[in-house]
Amino acid sequence: MGDVEYWACWAAMAMGLALHGVVRWRSGEAWRRRLDAWLTWGAWVAVGAVSLALVARHEPWRDELHTWLVTRDLTLEQLWHEMRWEGHVMLWQLVLHPFARGGAPVWTLGAVSWAVNWAALAFFAKKAPFGAAEKAVAMAAVPFAYLNPVVSRCYVLVPPVLFGLAALWGERDERPVRFGVLVALLANTHSYMWGTAGLMALVFAWENVWRRKDGKGWKACGGQRAGLAVMAAGIAVALAQVVPTLWDPSRGWGWHCGWKADLLSFLGLAPTWGWKAAALAGVCWAGWAAWKRDRGACVVFAGSLAYMVGFSVFLYSAAVMNRAVLWYGVFLWALWAVGGKVDAKWRTAAMLAVGLALWRPDLMAADWRWEYDPLPGACRYVAERYGPDAEVWIHGDEMSLEVARAYLGNTWDWRTGEKAERMCMSLASWKGDRRFSEAVREVFAKHPEKESVLVMGYPGGGSGLEWSDTEADGGVVEYRGAASVFGTTGEVVVMRVHFPYRR
What we know:
Radius of gyration: 26 Å
Number of helices: 22
Strand order of the largest sheet: 3-2-1-4-6-5
Strand content: 5-15%
Helix content: 55-70%
Shape: globular
Number of strands: 6
Oligomer: single chain
């Protein structure tokens, strides 16, 4: 999708919102309610339908497949131990566990993330104290229309938990345990949300236990203390899974400093600098409005953004799209938490500026138009011609093996001459690179009973199959496929190599 198409889509949305506003302005109260309901639920249906179509078309990314495979292959106890190398918490794996362990096909991954996202948007459409235009633009933004439902990662769990916390924010003193459970869940969605969860626990402790306006002593606040205990336990569980990665020698030193790439990465998906500035202004207004109406919400909001920026700069990059928009859920939470206490016109302006900055039909069109990786196509060729359990040797890195293992059941590793094991962050990441001819001789030396083997890999480059090692040297290429990663093309071949290998 080029610039003309992108701005045409943007103009169509702007015209639709303007038409809704004009008709609403000229209508009576009853018709205004109907128009608002049509826009809100029409947007919900449209976003659900578009994202479902994208899920059906989407080629899972390697990170998506990796999560599915470790969930499929590991017990819960092993998953807990694995998280220290993953750098994630295992709540998403627990959601996927009954499906992956139960033998569901890999496309179930997209179905689960889509269902979680659509249910969260239904709750948002029904409960959020915003106008119809604000809700429609928020739901059409790239986190809810594309990234969360289509790119199936743990980030899809963040919005539903934040929405639940926003709905309970004004009642947290009356429902402390329920509020505590949601804070505990938030801490276990992703380490980027630890700042938000921790600040919510601190604000809750300060306002509802230690400095209560009704003068009630902390010893009499049994329910509130129980809620705090649940929050503390949930945060401790999350920390126990991930923090060991910072000093585990097999993982390497966990700190980094990425000022240039990550300082403003939380605004990185805005298409132009003008929209980045407008989105930043909307975020700043939300912080100011929260400060004027609810100091606790302001502390959580501002502290969360500061934590995310600091995390991405010093610990782990936010450049990946799913992480780069986690701040948007906190932005919606803050405005939801202060509810009707802010000026509706300014709130609408802020939400439209931020939401439209994150409206990216070009990313959605790119995923529809291009496959992400050529390996799945090659795997489908092998499965259709030789069966899903056909022996196939993979020449590539760990992630190549991981993608192939998601589609084929009998993959072997050229580098080791052995059956391919699961790729996980706890294993050595790279065993060295060799020319294809050297690997072939070693494989046949280890397996002299084989007359030929089926090989899959990337041609060209030091880590793939060299052209001189394929057709010219005895390998018979059966399949050659290509795919585009948002415009960057890649190619993979499937070839039959016979013994003895001829030079």
